[in-house]
Every structure is written in C-alpha cells, then in structure tokens.
Amino acid sequence: MTDRYTEPAIRTLRPALICLTALLAMLLAACGGGAADPASAAGASMPIGGESGSELAAVQVLHRGNGAEPQTVDPHRGEGVPSSNIHRDLFEGLTIEAPDGAVIPGVAESWAISDDGMTYTFSL
User: Fold this and answer.
1) Which residues contact 91 (CB under 8 A, 6 or more apart)?
2) What is the extent of the structural domain holding 84?
3) Which residues, at least 6 apart from 114, have a Cβ–Cβ distance to it below 8 Å?
4) Number of domains in the chain
5) Which of 7, 10, 80, 87 lies 20 to 30 A from 50 at CA?
6) Global pTM?
7) Does residue 98 form part of some domain?
8) Digits of tens for pLDDT over the chain (124 positions)?
C-alpha cells in the first residue's frame, strides 16, 4: 500500500537530485584540467615586451568572452551588448575612466582647460 503523502515528495525530489548531480558534475569539470606547468605555455619564457622590454610580441591576440558574435563592427549600425563590447574595445576615447572613477588619459596624452572652462585642448 502506498502512502499518498510520500508520492508527491518523491516526484519533486527526483528532479532536484538530477539537477544537483548535473551541477556537481559541471563544478568538477570546471575545477579540473589546465596546463600542468604554466611556464611551459607558448611564449611564457619571453618577458613581456620582448627581450628589450620595448618590442611587441609577433602575435597579439585579444580573447573576448563576448557571449555572442556582434551583428556588425560598424558603430553606426551596431546594437546590443555584443556589438557594444567590441566597439568599446576598438574605439578608445580621448579620456577613460580608471577603476577608482578618476579620469585618466586614453588616446590623449594630456589636456588643458581654458580659464572660462569653455575650451578643452587635447594633445594627442
């Protein structure tokens, strides 16, 4: 004889256990793997900026976790978050905002503000 009060509990418990098992499997998969020795990765033996410290690496790659491909890289036609992320990376402003909120130089090396505050002169 089945108890009518335990059957609904089993119906709700089974999907919860399946979800929990899947979540644990994903967590374990995310924790494993990777390179055994990070120093043995390609290019890891060369110091940043090349041997002289001022040259650029032969291959430069930006990996952007964007979530989706942008519709276009044309800033006039792009819409949505994926396009905005790419535009922000491609087109740097004269000034940018530092993590602490301060305004720091972007493309501009420096700038001057007129006495009346109406004219900004940027040096590129």
Assistant:
1) 75
2) 57-91
3) 120, 121
4) 2
5) 87
6) 0.38
7) yes
8) 555 556 666 677 888 888 888 888 888 887 776 655 555 555 555 555 556 667 777 888 878 888 888 888 888 888 888 888 888 888 888 998 889 999 999 899 999 999 999 999 999 9
